[in-house]
Structure formats: structure tokens, C-alpha cells
Design goal:
Number of strands: 10
Helix content: 10-25%
Number of domains: 1
Largest sheet: 5 strands, antiparallel
Oligomer: single chain
Order of helices and strands: HEHEEEEEEEEE
């Protein structure tokens, strides 16, 4: 009789949700939030767009009306690193805008979306990045959010 009661108690407690559930891999998602003050201070825009680069480093916009150059750090040296993005008008035009990203992790990318918008992703560490869209004409970020890719430590993603 005592074993039957114990079995019923165990079944009821496991079905009632009394035990805490760990998040499963299928529950994992990327969360986005506004950047905090500390991260915001690591990003700057300037119209003083001087920098040393070669013409072969230029990446042109889809129609070739603008270009950008990413001045990447030496990743073989210990980080954190700084990256500078220089943007110019026309095929042979002078630089018009400089974006600087200080003390970031090991990955930085910038890609043209169209003739005036640049998508930028800068990783601050292993699980946090900033995703931004820079409007070259407005000389301002029109989108800037921090992405957190953290997952439960016991989650195995294939």
C-alpha cells in the first residue's frame, strides 16, 4: 500500500508542473535591445573621414555611386580591436564620412544594402553583437540594436 501511494504522489507531482523546466534548444532565440551607454560610447561618426587605404580596398555600392573601406585591425595581435569604416561619394570621390568602432571582439562586417544604406555588424564578444544600419545621406544610424545570441549552457546545437 505504501508503494502505491508513493507512486501516485510521484506521478501527480511530475504531471503538475511542480518541477522547474529547463529551456530546451527549440526555445532558444536571439534577443534584441537598445544599446547601453557603455556600448554607445564605443561608436562614433565623423565627417573628418581621413585615413590611409588603397583604391583596391574600396567596396562600391550596388550602382557604384558610393564606396566604403573597412580599415581592420591586426587580428593576430591581442584584442580588443578598433575598426574604422570610411565612406566616400563617386568612383573617385573623396571620403565624406568615418565611423569608428572601438574595443570590439574578433568580427566586423559592413555591406551595402543600397546606394545610401550600409548594414554593419560588430561583435563585442562571443555572444553579443551590435546590428546597425547607417544612412550615409543623413550621416546617422537609423537602426542600432544589440543582439544577444546566448543559449542555455546545456543546449547542444548541431
Amino acid at each position: 500500500m505504501g508503494i502505491r501511494i508513493l507512486t501516485v504522489i510521484l506521478l501527480v507531482s511530475s504531471c503538475s508542473g511542480a518541477q522547474a523546466q529547463k529551456p530546451s534548444c527549440k526555445d532558444v532565440f536571439v534577443s534584441y535591445a537598445k544599446p547601453n551607454e557603455r556600448l554607445s560610447q564605443k561608436i562614433s561618426l565623423s565627417t573628418d573621414a581621413r585615413g590611409e587605404y588603397t583604391e583596391s580596398q574600396r567596396v562600391t555600392s550596388p550602382q557604384g555611386t558610393r564606396w566604403l573601406v573597412s580599415l581592420n585591425p591586426d587580428y593576430t595581435k591581442a584584442g580588443p580591436w578598433d575598426t574604422t569604416l570610411i565612406i566616400g561619394n563617386g568612383a573617385a570621390g573623396t571620403p565624406i564620412l568615418k565611423a569608428t568602432f572601438r574595443d570590439h571582439g574578433n568580427t566586423f562586417s559592413a555591406n551595402w544594402l543600397n546606394e545610401k544604406l550600409v548594414y554593419i555588424q560588430v561583435w563585442w564578444g562571443r555572444i553579443v553583437s551590435s546590428d546597425m544600419i547607417l544612412d550615409v545621406e543623413k550621416q546617422a544610424f537609423i537602426y542600432n540594436e544589440v543582439a544577444n545570441y546566448g543559449a542555455p549552457t546545456d543546449c547542444k546545437i548541431d
